[in-house]
Amino acid sequence: MVKKSAERIYLALIFLFLYLPIAVLIILSFNNSKTRVQWGGFTLKWYKNLFSSGSIMEAFGTTLLISLTSALIATVLGTLAALGIDAMKKRNQAIMVGATNIPLLNADIVTGISMMLLFVRFTRLGMGTVLIAHITFNIPYVILNVLPKLKQSSRTTYEAALDLGATPVYAFFKIIWPQIRPGVFSGFLMAMTMSLDDFSVTYFTKGAGIHTLSTMIYTEMRKGIRPEMYALSTLLFLLALILLLFMNFGPSARREERDA
Question: Which superkingdom is the protein from (predicted)?
Answer without folding.
Answer: Bacteria
